[in-house]
Amino acid sequence: MSEPPTERLGLHEPDLAQEAQARSRLGERLRPRQGPDLRDLVGAVMVTFQDRDHVKLTVRRLLRDLGQVVVVDLGSDDGTAAALRTAFPALEVLSLEKEAGFAAAINAGMGRLTQPFVLAVHGDARLRPGAVERLFDAVRGTRDMVGCAGARLVSPSGLPEHAAGFKPSPRTRLVARLRDLHPSFGRKRLKRPARFAPVVMTQVDWVSSVAMMVRRDAFEQVGGMDDGYFLAYGDMDFCLRLKRAGWRVVCEARARAIHLDRVEESQASRRAGRRRFYRRHGLRRWFVRS
Q1: Nearest Cα to 281, choosing from 242, 247, 248, 246?
Q2: Which contiguous run of DSSP H or E holds residue 203?
Q3: Cα–Cα distances in Å, from 134 out to 38, 190, 257?
Q4: CA separation for the pair 125, 46 (Å, rounded)
Q5: What's the pLDDT at 141?
Q6: What is the pLDDT, as a whole number, of residue 193?
Q7: What average pLDDT does the structure give for the chain?
Q8: DSSP state, residue 169
Q9: Predicted TM-score (pTM) of this structure
Q10: Closest listed residue to residue 219, CA positions, set 246, 249, 236, 242
């Protein structure tokens, strides 16, 4: 009686079974894993102001990728809110007075969302492909205690913008004072590209609210954004309060957005925000004659 082919080759059934099991495990390891469904975990609040001509594309992409999107319009007189309601009948669009400010708009939008992670984005920002996913990956881990992650911002010409940084130093406060005394000095400096523009994920003190992902539990722990800020210093204040509560703030440089920078805040409003910021964070002594 002839031997089975496997025995002639020195192979036995247990060996073949173990080899098949090992190959199966290797195949599972090499097979690309599907990431979490962002529609179940991430919502978005977009703050718009005079953005009718370019905001629809961003809203369409967010509605396609995320579970819920809320738009908060700050008193636009170009028909932004009406245009969005017409183009997206199921989209929730809230309207606030312009004087309410971006911080109040983000708080209002957060109150309408239920997801554990929320993308805050301005209407004049255009998110690049993969930006939302990378921001989500930066904040979803509970071990790292990342409460907020911001994107790397560039101008339409490609120059990096001020999208992240650290607690103001005496030098930056002096520059702010010079801007008050000589507005032309401030305008020239604001046109320059940012000196600090991370190219990898970097832990920072603050990130811009133009495009940032926040954890809801971290947001609620610090009481959300401060409605006392119109635009400037509101995101810095929020992030510093997060860090004080034990959360980390990071700039995810691989998540990128083009910032059209269509909103210009008045000098008086910026001064008021800066005074409020310095008083809250113990920097009053550096602000002369405030």
Answers
A1: 242
A2: strand 202-204
A3: 11, 28, 12
A4: 10
A5: 82
A6: 59
A7: 84
A8: P
A9: 0.79
A10: 242
Q: Please count the other Cβ atoms lying within 10 Å of the Cβ belonging to residue 169.
A: 11
Rounded distance, CA 225 to CA 202, Å? 22
- pLDDT tens for 37-55 read 888 999 999 999 999 999 9
Residue 137's pLDDT is what? 95
Q: Any idea what the Cα angle at residue 179 is, between residues 178 and 180, rounded to 5°?
A: 90
pLDDT higher than 70, residue 85: yes
Q: Can you list the alpha helix ranges (DSSP code H) found in 113-224?
A: 131-139, 170-181, 183-190, 216-221
Instruction: Round to whole Å and give the CA distance between 206 and 242.
Output: 9
Chain-centre distance of CA 183, in angstroms? 30
* Helix or strand holding residue 259 (H, E): strand 248-259
CB 261 within 8 A of CB 124: yes
Q: What's the distance, CA 227 to chain centroid?
A: 18
Retrieve residue 11's tokens. 């192979």
**Residue by residue, what is the 3-state secondary structure of 68-114?**
EEEEEEECCCCCHHHHHHHHCCCCEEEEECHHHHHHHHHHHHHHHCC
Beta bridge partners of 54: none
Nearest by Cα to 204 from 153, 258, 255, 147: 147
- Model confidence at 220, in pLDDT bands (50, 70, 90)? very high
**How far is 53 from 34, CA to CA, in rounded Å?**
36
- The percentage of residues in the chain with a pLDDT greater than 90, rounded to a whole number, is 62
Band the pLDDT of 286: cuts 50, 70, 90.
very low
Angle of CA points 85, 88, 89, to nearest 5°: 70
Domains of the chain, residue spans: 40-286
pLDDT tens-digit series, residues 168-183: 765 555 555 555 555 5
CATH 3.90.550.10 assigned to 40-286: yes
